[in-house]
Structure formats: C-alpha cells, structure tokens
UniProtKB/TrEMBL annotation:
Protein name: DUF2007 domain-containing protein
Lineage: Bacteria, Pseudomonadati, Pseudomonadota, Alphaproteobacteria, Rhodobacterales
InterPro entries for the chain: DUF2007, N-reg_PII-like_a/b
Residues of the DUF2007 domain: 1-63
Alphabetized Pfam families for the sequence: DUF2007
Organism expressing this protein natively: Puniceibacterium antarcticum
Amino acid sequence: MEELLRTNDITLIPRARALLEDEGIDSFELDVNMSVLEGSIGILPRRLMVRTDDLSDAVRILRMNGVSFERG
C-alpha cells in the first residue's frame, strides 16, 4: 500500500474514495480512530492509501477530476 494523500479536510477523502471506487480502484483510510481520539478538531491528518500498482492511476484520476492535494 502507498499513501495517496494526507489531509485534515474531512470532505476530501470521501470525495477521493468515491472517484476511485467509480474507476475500480480500492482505497483504505488510515488514522480515522486517531482523529476521533483527538476530539475531531482536525489537528491530526487522515491518510488515504491505495495499492502500489494503482498509485499512478489514482493520482491521475483525482487530478483529472479537479481534486487538489499534495502527496504525503
């Protein structure tokens, strides 16, 4: 698994996951529980992971759909 993106924006990961799912790319969100522990105030970023083989396609799909993000 490779880190596709890391963000504090709570709307970005669901959008990215939906776009990837539409293209048949599986993703997995990490650090969800850490976010809950810190009180959901957005200090700790969440990470979205994809398979290594899907990484370049995932980046391309998100960028083609106007999703702005920096890779972790």
